[in-house]
Amino acid sequence: MKAWDVLRLGISYVILAVAAAIAVFPIYYIVITSLSDIPTIASISIGSLIPQPRGLTLDAYKGILFGNPFLLWLRNSLILAGATVAITILLAFLSGVALSRLNVPGKRALMVTVYVLTFFPMTVTVLPLYLMFATLHLINTYYGLILAYSSGTSIYGAYLVKLFVDSIPKEYEEAAMIDGLSRLGAFVRILLPLSKPVLAFLGLIAFMGAYTDYAMANVFITSSDLWTLTLGMWYLSFVNRSTLYNVFAAFAVLMGIPIMAVFLAFQRYLTRMYTMSGVKG
Predict the structure, then answer these.
(1) Within a 10 A sphere around the Cβ of 270, how many other Cβ atoms?
(2) For site-directed labelling of 3, which of 22, 74, 257, 273 has its Cα 20 to 30 A away?
(3) Could you tell me the pTM of the whole model?
């Protein structure tokens, strides 16, 4: 039995090592490509995966950071993503709590409608939103993109919050109200703190959607002063109908730093989110 336990443990470690290698390899490949002088895909070979120290260069990073308005693109992306997160969390949380705790007329039909709307990708709304925003003079503005991002994410977020709040017993709020808290006080001091995991998860989704979007930004932004990081990446990486893969990879690494920072900041709440029953619903 001991030999079998050791063999089973060894097989488990081998499987975990293979899975970890598969997960880490794309990140390694992007970083190595960003540090190389590989201009096109025709130049990529197996040998380039293990480059020599002399073959590594920071030219792609220098060109992005010092030869182009990278900080301007970063500022625009963070403004759009931050505003989208704030509006999405506010609308989704209030809507989700209302659907969970209040007896809203037509609640079941409304929930079915919200559930069906989550099936449609956000890009489906590009044309109607463009026509509407053109009439309202919101093209080439922060406001138009923020509204476009927030609307789609808020619908999914409301459904997600509703499922999560359903898993929180109503007795918590009722006990707080018996102790003297008002309905608003129970909402702020009981329900809101307990909902931090789903709010963190929703904030991460909203941030990722706005920060990494290209399709809507390409449609709604016409001025280079309002370009986001994704538009800047396209501008720098595609020259004369060919892709500069080292520049593309370097830009991806730089874009990934804020995403990693946000993920690490909310990691504690995300772990709780995954382990709670509200997500399984």
Answers:
(1) 16
(2) 22
(3) 0.81
